[in-house]
Amino acid sequence: MTDFRQKALDYHAFPKPGKISVEISKPAETAKDLSLAYSPGVAEPVREIAADPENAYKYTAKGNLVAVISNGTAILGLGNLGPLASKPVMEGKALLFKRFAGLDSVDIEVKHRTTEEFIQTVEAIADTFGGINLEDIKAPECFEIERELIERCNVPVFHDDQHGTAIVTAAGLINSLEVQGKDIAEARIVCMGAGAAAVACMELLIKCGAQRENIYMLDRNGVIHTRRDDLNEYKALFANNTDKRTLEDVITDADVFVGVSGPDVLPAEAVKLMAPNPVIFACSNPDPEIKPELAHATRDDLVMGTGRSDYPNQVNNVLCFPFIFRGALDVRATRINDEMKVAAVDAIRALAKEPVPQEVLVASGYDSLEFGKDYVIPKPMDPRLLPRVARAVAVAAVESGVARIALPENYMQD
Ligand SMILES: NC(=O)C1=CN([C@@H]2O[C@H](COP(=O)(O)OP(=O)(O)OC[C@H]3O[C@@H](n4cnc5c(N)ncnc54)[C@H](OP(=O)(O)O)[C@@H]3O)[C@@H](O)[C@H]2O)C=CC1
Ligand SMILES: CC(=O)C(=O)O
Ligand SMILES: [Mg+2]
């Protein structure tokens, strides 16, 4: 067993199995305390909530509580390993919600037979939470699941692998293109993968200025083109009318490679074929589409990002989901709409251009960091992400009419 593997297993096993726990937030020492916390006192908020469900935000933890829900069908890039095996990742997301945004979070792994059964399970428990973060649910089912749950639930529902990934990818990519002196409207983009993350990333890039016809998407069967008869409706949106069939065909002169597929699918020979000053985001976790060492050894003019914490430019939805939920919950948004997503992109992008505080340098192991090839996107442990991104999202929610309460005091000042 490698040293790192053992360290990772020990981290999860000791001193107590798992990564999250529940703590109580009110005194519960005396009979007097218990008479308030439990019987008879608890009956009072029960009556208040029965009279008006909004009172759940006043008298329970609902407003600060996010459910992280998975069925384990697309656990990182490891594939469909089932609900229980997804639990460490879901606990990990809960850890990140708490660590970065102070949000309480519980992981829920759902075993189900049909897509409708999954939807009904989540719908049935949704009112318990302030928001629902769907995680690691494979395409194409994830699209129907999210669409249905948004319609059926009274709280925001957000599939992190779609939109969290898209927001961070868009922020990082727009900055990278700026560093490389390129215009997103003209960039030729290759997207390896045609699932949850891929479809959402490319749709958001189009909203940010990319041209649909400049995007070449690939799945396990190669380039997605109009003559294929095996495409689901989501892949079909990216079918190019082209004779190009292979990665080699589409990567030639491409400005951007976005990998949201699986490990080691981008060979060095393909990297050599890209246009001058390319951008490669190899976002598959835990193992990227190409190892940064290999990509950098192949050419020296690229901006390289991965989904991992141990290389520069971590393009990972951790930069988004804690903060977008913080902003959404703080104004009790009914949904997380495009305006809020674009506001998050802009806030994340802008932060990368500011001087990096010493505490961030120390936490990320750098002597200095400056906007450029090795720093196109903020570090997850940057404490400015929380106020900046959450505020931008909350303001966008208010302005786009999905907030149910006014902007809180602490969001008022610029
Ligand atoms: N860095 C980040 O923040 C994030 C990274 N990701 C990564 O993106 C990847 C996909 O996740 P997600 O979209 O949720 O999963 P999905 O199961 O929804 O989609 C996976 C897609 O990848 C394609 N794919 C898998 N292996 C290959 C391969 N060898 N060659 C070409 N295409 C391949 C599949 O092709 P087909 O349709 O033919 O089966 C499918 O289109 C994972 O590796 C995940 O770790 C995801 C979210 C966030
Ligand atoms: C980061 C993440 O959500 C994933 O790889 O699935
Ligand atoms: Mg995920």
UniProtKB/TrEMBL annotation:
It holds the Pfam family Malic_M. Gene3D superfamilies: Malic enzyme, N-terminal domain, NAD(P)-binding Rossmann-like Domain. Residues 162-398 form the Malic enzyme NAD-binding domain. A divalent metal cation binds at E135, D136, D161. The keyword Oxidoreductase applies. Its EC number is 1.1.1.40. SUPFAM superfamilies: Aminoacid dehydrogenase-like, N-terminal domain (SSF53223), NAD(P)-binding Rossmann-fold domains (SSF51735). One of its GO terms (molecular function) is metal ion binding. (S)-malate binds at N285, N316. Its cofactor is Mg(2+); Mn(2+). Belongs to the malic enzymes family. This is NADP-dependent malic enzyme. It comes from Oceanimonas doudoroffii. The lineage of its organism: Bacteria, Pseudomonadati, Pseudomonadota, Gammaproteobacteria, Aeromonadales.
